[in-house]
Design goal:
alpha/beta, Rossmann fold, two-stranded parallel ribbon, 11 helices, 9 strands, 55% helix, 14% strand, globular
Length: 283
């Protein structure tokens, strides 16, 4: 069991979505959150909500893809609290929207920089402190797309598959080294966040004009696929952490995809393509 009450818990990407709700639920369960995000305004709103709950919270604007900044942040959190017990490597961007043939290198660098190296940076910066705490826990947020691949999401899928492998490797090393650190990988399905829309805005800011199919894809995600409230997802994740689960599937869609890929590893790519063709034919 890995309890939350009284623990110093670091949450990245806490300015919105699952990250914000993780921070709030940690506060409700008696944890002491240290929250960060690259979005200063969103982070400030999270802090307001944490203070309303009476939480002893600290915040910092942080780009998790910046390794020296993450290392400096880890030292700062330890100085502020004296100890760190848990880290929730949650910060992520959608990327995607283009095929591998079409995608530019900037998209790969940014998506993998945040989604993969952000997780690695956070884990490596905080892990020694989690071990020193005597009761640590690393929680890395992968995705449904850390189990299943989809067209036009190569950078996102590559990062989320890698987060799964990195986290499971970390688990073996903590067991081998007999370190007092639990390790959990989380695979959320369709959680109601702004990740699809933010990906579109990011592409437009880089001068990439979205195609009709890309706009349809964003509408599909926002209207049909991203359904679970983020606060419910946060409760499922923290229930799993407190139960010491090594793997948490968030939502029936994530559970269904997990079974599909296990049972039909050769057939599932064709089923995914057929599903997308039918969906987009109606849009």
């Amino acid at each position: 069991m890995s309890g939350v009450r009284g623990k110093v818990a670091v949450v990245t990407g806490a300015g919105s979505g699952i990250g914000r709700q993780l921070a709030l639920e940690l506060a409700r369960r008696g944890a002491r959150p240290a929250v960060s995000d690259v979005d200063e305004a969103g982070l400030a709103e999270t802090v307001v909500q944490l203070k309303a709950l009476g939480a002893d919270a600290r915040s910092a604007v942080l780009d998790v893809s910046d390794r020296p900044a993450v290392e400096a942040y880890a030292a700062e959190v330890v100085e502020q609290f004296g100890v760190v017990h848990q880290i929730y490597n949650n910060a992520g961007v959608a990327g995607g929207g283009q095929t591998i043939l079409e995608a530019d290198w900037e998209s790969y660098n940014r998506t993998l920089g945040v989604n993969l190296f952000g997780v690695i940076n956070g884990t490596k910066a905080f892990l020694p402190h989690l071990i020193d705490s005597g009761d640590g826990h690393v929680v890395n947020i992968s995705s449904l797309n850390g189990i299943m691949a989809q067209p036009t999401l190569s950078a996102y899928c590559a990062g989320k598959f890698a987060v799964r492998g990195f986290t499971e490797t970390l688990r073996t090393e903590m067991i081998l080294g007999k370190h007092p650190v639990g390790v959990t990988v989380v695979h959320p399905g369709g959680v109601k966040t702004g990740i699809a829309s933010s990906s579109l805005r990011e592409a437009q800011a880089r001068g990439i004009e979205p195609t009709a199919e890309q706009l349809a894809r964003v509408r599909l995600y926002n209207e049909k696929l991203l359904k679970m409230p983020a606060d419910r997802a946060a409760r499922i994740i923290l229930d799993g952490v407190e139960a010491g689960k090594p793997r948490v599937l968030v939502g029936n869609d994530a559970k269904m995809v997990d079974r599909l890929v296990r049972l039909l590893p050769r057939l599932y790519p064709k089923l995914i393509v057929d599903f997308e063709r039918k969906r987009f034919a109606r849009l």
